[in-house]
Amino acid sequence: MLETSQNAKHKQDAAWSCFLDLLEYKADLHGTHVEKVEPEGTTKECVVCGVKTVNLLWVRKHSCPACGNQDDRDLNAAKNILNEDSIT
Nearest 5 degrees, angle CA 45-CA 50-CA 54? Predict the structure, then answer.
C-alpha cells in the first residue's frame, strides 16, 4: 500500500503519530510515561567507547573497530539512548 501511493510518506507519518498517541495513553493508564528521543546516530556510535562507525542498513550487527565491542545493532542503539544525558 505504501510503495505505490503518492502520499505514502503522509500515511506513514499519520500511522506513527497514531501509534505514539496510543502508546502515551497506555503509559498514562499504567502510571508511567513515554519520552521521545532523537534516534539519529544511535546505531552508529559504540556504547562502550563512543567511536562512530559506518553501518549499512542491512548489517544487523554493530562491531566497533576501536574496542572490539560486538552487539546487535538495535540493542546498541537502545543502550545509547538509555545512556543519553539530555533526552528531548
Answer: 35
pTM comes to 0.65
Q: What is the 3-state secondary structure (H, E, C) of the chain?
A: CCCCCCCHHHHHHHHHHHHHHHHHHHHHHCCCCCCCCCCCCCCCECCCCCCECCCCCCCCEEECCCCCCEEEHHHHHHHHHHHCCCCC
Give me the half-sphere count of Cα atoms (radius 13 Å) on the Cβ side of residue 58: 0
pLDDT in tens, 62-87: 999 999 999 999 999 999 998 886 55
Contact (Cβ atoms closer than 8 angstroms) between residue 27 and residue 34:
yes
Tens of pLDDT along 42-64? 888 999 999 999 888 888 999 99
